[in-house]
Give the backbone structure.
Amino acid sequence: MNRDELVAACDRLLDAGRFRDYTVNGLQVAGRDRVVRAMSGVTACQALLDEAVTWGADLLLVHHGYFWKNEPVAITGMKQRRIRTLLLNDINLLAYHLPLDAHPELGNNAELARRLDFSVEGCADGEPGEGLLWLGSPPPGLDAPGLARHVGARLSREPLLIEAANGGEIRRIAWCTGGAQDMITAAWEAGADAFLSGEISERTTHLARELGIHYLAAGHHATERYGVQALGEWLASEFGLEHRFVDIDNPA
């Protein structure tokens, strides 16, 4: 498969140009023109790059790539070693951040809902495919500790639960994968009983308790493993590529 055609197909599928993001979406580092083997992973860390080299990948597809807003522009140290690995081995780096969070079928939020059996109502901050704060309902009969156990079992990672004073069954839930803890107020304003994201900040605990909304921090990495896998599988099916997802362990 021609690299440029593949990138163009991903850009169209994810409507990447719509998003004002903190990074470059699409092709970040160019490698060989022909793609047969595509490896996917959450973050383009050195361990994932080394796996790509060993496997003979032509393209590395990630959610967290390089060139973030406000980071130093000099290509030195760790950044130099990573980019050098790609260039020496002629590997393409393809990265999608917010477009992969938002996609209504293959995105991180959609895939997380599928794995957690959440029914999807819509988004609080835009139409599906654009919004990042998703709304719906969890499986029936779950209170906050029950929801935490359910999430832990499905993601193989026990979430940190900040339980609000009001108990009872959770009927409406909001979620956004990754580092979206500051969406908790918007989740509360949307009428959610609970909000699930990846990370937690010191202030999140106080907001949850004082707003009266349960908060579950289920891990940035753990909540964002699934969109990039789904996109990699779509590429394999659409273009006849070999695809392999590599999960580099990350407890955060």
Remarks:
- The mean pLDDT is 97.
- The two ends are 35 Å apart (CA to CA).
- The chain has ten helices and eleven strands.
